[in-house]
Amino acid sequence: METLLLLLLLSVFLLSISNICLAKHIDNLISRTQFLKDGDTIISKGGTFEMGFFSPTNSSNRYVGIWYKQIPVQTVVWVANRDAPLADTSSSTVLKITKLGGQLALLGDKGQPVWSVNTSRSVQNPVAELLDSGNLVLRDAEDENPENFLWQSFDHPTDHWLPGVKFGWNIQTGHEIFFTAWKGENDPASGQYTLHLDPTGYPQYIIKNGTTEIFSSGPWNGLYFSATSSTRISPLINFQHGMVINKKEVYVWYNPSNNLGLFRFVVTSNGILKLWVWEDEMKQWVSNRGQPSDTCGTYGLCGGNGVCNIYQFRICVCLDTFLPNNNATATASLSQGCHRRKPLSCQNNGSSSDGFLKYSDIKLPDTKHSWYDESMSLQECERVCLRNCSCMAYSTLNISNGGSGCLIWYDDLVDIRTIPNGQDIYIRLAATEIPGIVNVKNKILVPCLSMLVVIVLAGVSLYLYFCKSKRKEQMLKQELELPIFDWSTISRATNNFSEMNKLGQGGFGTVYKGALDGGEEIAVKRLSKISTQGLEEFMNEVICIAKLQHRNLVKLLGCCISGEEKMLIYEYMPNKSLDFFIFDQTRKKLLDWLKRFNIINGIARGLLYLHQDSRLRIIHRDLKSSNVLLDIDLNPKISDFGLARSLVGNATGDNTKRVAGTHGYISPEYATHGIFSVKSDVFSFGVLVLEIVSGKRNNEFSNEDQYETLPGHAWKLYKEGESLKLVDEHIFDSYDVTQVLRSIHVGLLCVQQSSKDRPNMSSVVQMLVNDAALPQPKEPGFFVGRRAVFNSESSSAKHATSSLNEVTMSSLGPR
To answer: What is the pLDDT of residue 704?
Structure first.
């Protein structure tokens, strides 16, 4: 009897609990007989999303919104009354379907509508339902088609572009689906930044600040928008996505094609379109690089016919054979654009002797003034453009499946930039401006006799040159088994060494980006005729690196010797060099601690290979941040072996009267006595580690006290137990304290004054990845807290402040 009584009491208790739960979580449907009040929530049938009242952080305003249900961080993806917040709520404040017209409305405490929706038609039995996609829909409960919506929130998004949302235009109704950022991080009100699909010309998406366009994606090319080719999402994140263009609608869509978990595109309150992915192990959202991603993302920054190149010191330049409209020499003034050096020859009847010059690896221009045909071939596209005097350029419309379609631009070309893995465009020029095209009229005016003399002399010269070049090529091939490229091949690959292809310049000469006939991207290091380095350094680099293969060394693809021309052909590194990132106040933010630690370990493994594991024992002698290149995934690759030396047998060092290298990275024994060894590279590596951790350049480091070198400053902080003060402020929120302190400790061990005290690279690699106790470091070289390192009476002291390689070409990456 007592057992039955207990069971009865337990049943009553469970029933009470059940009723309480029903009061808190109603069905995922709202009908005319139901409503949502503050404290209640609706959960989607699959449990992914939840809807209810919420208040942002540090705000007492109440909003109705939708957020993810299963994650601990409340992430609101849609807000109903974003511009009509409720100061407070009471039992009379509800979200319900009204009897009048069957509308969904948010009613205030006095019954007045605060927010409501306009439905396509009135029905007798409307219901509101939260779908597992995050879409709030209003539909007719009696309609057999559950997707025949009267209204849906996906047609009226706020700042989130969720999978399944059609981003674009309904041409028949004129309704636009676009996104508006929050006014602030904790203020859902409509902000000043909006994201639109612009259907003018060929569709592209744009970001606006009010009415001012601040970013243009360029056209959709069948795979992605033109501007996003350099910032595409990781291959691990796969999308089914595309653009639909027909007489009824124009829109872009995307859906996940594998089990990615949760992810979302957001227009942030500062005008950036970002992708966020939920990392379940980390229990936080992780963002992908957004758009606009850098200064060159600013719409129209370089004006009409100007090109933005973030890797150059002067980021705005004119297209080849174009001149600034106002003879501009500064970046800012180039915003007025550029004009052709020679006018086009097109006539009113459509006849023309103009031609086209191909530009590669660019973000295609703004397409507001464009025309397209989806079925036309590229050759037909050229003919159509040539017949129209207003046509300024053309390109392939769809690059998938081998390429198809035609896209044509009219008027000035606006918002062009260079990007890794960009697209090709053919820009119209006067025939005389295109390499290889000779004007027939000029040819007729040349006296036949003069031409004959020129041809004979040229023939003799070419014959002698050909024989000489062939002998050099055969010698190199026999010695190195290294591919030898023809001058014509490299010239063609670099657009005749065009300024548009220029990546950088230094003491060696100039580095150009190129693409071989098969499409392989290359970096061409061209020896300058006035270079401080000559054939010795050129051959040294070829001999040293040709026989080295390691994932953390830049790969030499071949060389070219043609007359006085000497060139090295390397694999192309799209992310330039390490110094381009860590010493720039904006770009260094892209290197969190995980990426920096990966770079430190990669450099260490590359040096270990050079010192111990390669066929030759190599001492680099010029290891520095600008000689560490970064690939597409920011993995480091050691480059520039012009000063490297190989050692015979078990030798670990040598000496020289010709001290070469870069001030700030040279070890004390090498600078003062010309003694170099594997420990010289270890010293340079230690300086690099401290630079990577601190984000400060050793050569330019300054401090208020007497410690004027970066190693000296790090040493002082280490002795005071304040090593974390060395850490770059841009990675404060992301670093692993143990890894950072260990990296600083290893860096100080590497820069010790005596080479005997420094560890070898085998030990360094182990120190970085293991947690064994580390020896205590001694004072670093060039430590100015005590007596000067250099003896003023030493004949070698002059080497301390000079460097043969101070101005050598130190980067093969884009400038």
So the answer is: 46
